[in-house]
Amino acid sequence: KFYGEREMVSLYVKYEDEGGENISFYGSRGPFDYLSDKAIKEAGKELNIKTINENNFELEWTGQSTSGTETTYQESWERASVPVGLSNIMNHTFGDQRTDRPYSGTWMMKGVRSMSTGELLPAKEVSYKLYGDGSFLAFSYRRAGDNETLFTGRAGTFEAVSDSVIKERGGQNTIKWLGENTFEASLGNGEDSIVEVWTRAEMPESYQAVCTMLNEIRSSGSGNADDGNKNYDEVVMLPDVIAQFPGGMNKATEFLSENIHYPKECVKDKVEGNVFVTFVITKDGEVVNPKVVKSPDSRLSAEAIRVVLSMPHWKPAQQKGQDVAMQMTLPVLFKLSNRK
Questions:
Q1: Phi, psi of 133 (to 5 degrees)
Q2: Burial class of 275 by CB neighbour count within 10 A (0 to 12, 13 to 18, 19+)
């Protein structure tokens, strides 16, 4: 859950791979009211709240069970960072401000072309897609009453292989451009293939509201990052322009790969995998406060922290034209065949 001043987003994330790069998700956006120290209202429903400490609280409400009887429900919540895969995708998708790429901006599905007749059949639901620097996000949404919006989608890796081929989450799609603002994407092969038609469009107001709210969320529920005796400015979760590694994200991945010192014990035990490290890039471009959020082995975690801290200064993120600190999450890949 993400709580704003007057709105909230509930989000359920499913990881489709061990690396956390590809996800599916669904959720809702609706109004939020803080009634008192003991009660809040989510999407018009009043819930009892019990604060355990600054990082934990419990919710309680009464509702009908599947058998129709009135039942009291309880949930426990803990403060957390934005999920790793989602954080990467939001940073690389919404933070990509370049307009010189053919896929930049927001796209809406116009329909699906019949393989037998060639007829363009209208889309059954409103679907949108955004392409960013190495990631994409696709979603659809619908209204649920006057105040709540439900949405579902998928996201993950994106690569423009050529003018006629792209890869989404590793799957290859054939592209046919019908104009500067319209393209067809052929998915699958043979009888199972489908052709989707996408056209450039404005992001819907409802989804803009979700993005605006997420942009106001501060990393880890805190406005400050601390590293030793240093205090850094407020950390912006989704700045207007994200921080840039010298040469781009591919160079960042290359730097990490070339500077890893593979722990000998892990080589012996044949341990490998991705270590996800979240860290802060200050408004001066310095990398600070690294934390491991997902790792296959603690010995790899220690080396991942070391190599992340060895990175050169980044070009800082910007918010309203001003340099700001932001949180970034990167995977550090340990692969035995690549070890040095």
A1: -80, 85
A2: buried
